[in-house]
Amino acid sequence: MDMTINWILERVDESPSTNEDLMARWRSGLLWEPVARLALRQTAGRGRMGRHWLSSPQKALTFSIAYPFKKGIQDLSGLSLACGLAVIKGISSATQISLDELRQKGLGLKWPNDILISHKKLAGMLIEGGQLKSDEATWLVIGIGINLSDSASLEHEIGRAIASLSELAPENTLNSDMLWLEILKELAIVMTNFETAGFEKYQSEWNAWDLYQNKICQIHQQDQLQLEGLEKGVDESGCLLIETSQGVQKIISGDVSLRVAS
Ligand code: BTN
Asked: 84 in ligand 1 pocket by Cβ < 6 Å?
């Protein structure tokens, strides 16, 4: 199967949010072909759970893709997890650092959508969209933000340490457009795979990158502790498994967050 996608590439100096740009087009019925839109600077970047996504211009790669799936949203569970793997592979190609070495350097995944170096956040992902009419494609807008180099001011604003790609590869060796294109190549493989199959083929790969497996973790919803237990990775549809005294609980991605119990 041909795994390439002819993305329409858009690269703008500034946008409030590349996710919002593509979502607005989708709501107006103005999306036809797969699009990838990058902004060098975002002024109102959006994160999960209604949060803001802050990034310093030139110090982060911020882009979104819009892709029309021929199946319903119910058959796309785990897609965002597979996209996390695509980002890792894109980082490996662009930096020419092997996956094994990246893992040794502490790169890994945190369910559902975060990419971390050790315990600091390197990248996040926000998926929006859906199906406007039952006979139409399911358009998903997938936004990805990756910190490229250290920003003390950003850390100060966020109030905690964040990771950047410069911890993995010297800054002058990394071309962010190249990184973008390598990630797009990997995302295309995920999109085409999900047209015919689902998350099953990514399950063991995702679990191998899971930084919290076998750690005591907590699930929070709107800052309320929902449950605590041993994190056991994800099942074949991408649900997180938490082993508690009442047995293994399945967590469906939604507005929940995972924390390590302290
Ligand atoms: C999160 O970790 O909460 C998700 C962060 C997603 C940020 C990216 S940056 C490009 C795209 N445009 C946005 O407004 N958000 C996403």
From this structure: no
pLDDT in tens, 176-224: 999 999 999 999 999 999 999 999 999 999 999 999 999 999 999 888 8
- pTM for this structure? 0.95
Tell how far the Cα of 46 is from the centroid of ligand 1, in angstroms: 5
**17 pocket-lining for ligand 1 (C-beta < 6 Å):** yes
What is the secondary structure of 195-239 as a DSSP string? HH--GGGGHHHHHHHBTTTTSEEEEEETTEEEEEEEEEEE-TTS-
Using the mean position of ligand 1's atoms as its centre, give its distance from the Cα of residue 197 in Å: 26
Q: Could you give the CA distance from residue 60 to residue 99 in angstroms, rounded to a whole number? A: 22
CA distance readout (Å), 249 to 45, 61, 212, 236: 33, 35, 16, 14
Say if residue 256's pLDDT is above 70.
no
